[in-house]
């Protein structure tokens, strides 16, 4: 790490508060927590709790904050596992986001070869165990820096459940928990290091529940009305609809219930849909067409259908002033360097990618800065419309790894993942310190934010007024 360059470049070193003979190194505060980062990340990885069920994972983060003197408000926004931890007084108020939910249906040990874990039903295939741990470390490092320098301001850690399909942050935004936040900082696990100004797709999901009439499929088929026929008819029409949508559209589904025996006409079936687009208004327009296919399918199969919206996220609102600042911090820090043991492990993982493998040395590089569209979706999007927001991605996974894969689960439970989380904590800490000490940066970023939203902006979630779906993973 280029420590001397950082000493010269970071405003925290150049501007110690009155009464302090020596500047305070915020990176030293991150380094002092390396063991905590790895321990917390591994524990949350072991638990692998699903959205809105992350009782132990959320509790661990809360307990760690309380030990450091944060005041912790639990169960915010009517979500038992959501929380806000705060330290400090005065302003600015800077939020760091923490996630901790796992994905269902994918398990893996920390082995470099495919090794599902028989007694687990979920895995951290998106690295949210690292997200939570790294953000915790950053929040504590910033708190210690504020305390030692006497800098006025408040640091908050937002514990945000159920990012994967539950939109936990949206309910927190809707509840007004970001109304007094000046800036928000987040990060994400990845297979590369980047602070590019990367936006995302808006999305909405729902479960479509068809109900019919059961009967003996051979003895009395004329008496039955198959709910599964309703689901399949809807899917067929949606797949034809795909031909007549714009390029940014993404539609995907899984049949979550389709009957239990072929000789019983199923009287209930369910399909779970996601619709995505770069424009939230286009998601709404596509949604009307999706609901029309459901109604048509029910009409044509003699069934009925009901719809429950599960989640919905607005696209990320990019703030380039903040993104360029974060990019500069990341370049000061550099990328990830493997030990000999980690490199051997990474080489084994890399073999599983075939032609999609990437050079392992790319983990040590910082990707070029640009403004780009990411085709994923995140509830950070709604936060970014409530307050100026900036993010960073670090190489927690072996280069070439796709999110939501067994390889991502393995690396998220490995020392490589913990290294990436520690790098993210460093970058977020430096960004927070910059925002606390640089009023010109705060003014520039806020002006860009206000201009991007427009003077008549009014927040509207894609969830409507529904309550948090605490049982959607049951």
TrEMBL record:
InterPro entries in the cross-refs: Amidohydrolase (IPR017439), Aminobenzoyl-glu_utiliz_pB (IPR017145), Bact_exopeptidase_dim_dom (IPR036264), Peptidase_M20 (IPR002933), Peptidase_M20/M20A_hydrolases (IPR052030), Peptidase_M20_dimer (IPR011650)
Signal peptide boundaries: 1-21
Taxonomic superkingdom: Bacteria
Residue ranges of every copy of the Peptidase M20 dimerisation domain listed in the record: 205-296
UniProt KW Ion transport keyword: no
UniProt entry tagged with the keyword Metal-binding: no
Gene3D superfamilies referenced in this protein's UniProt entry, alphabetically: 3.30.70.360, Zn peptidases (3.40.630.10)
UniProt-listed SUPFAM superfamilies: Bacterial exopeptidase dimerisation domain, Zn-dependent exopeptidases
Keywords assigned by UniProt, alphabetized: Hydrolase, Signal
Pfam families, per the entry: M20_dimer (PF07687), Peptidase_M20 (PF01546)
Protein name per Swiss-Prot or TrEMBL: Amidohydrolase
Species in which this protein is naturally found: Parerythrobacter lacustris
Taxonomic placement: Bacteria, Pseudomonadati, Pseudomonadota, Alphaproteobacteria, Sphingomonadales
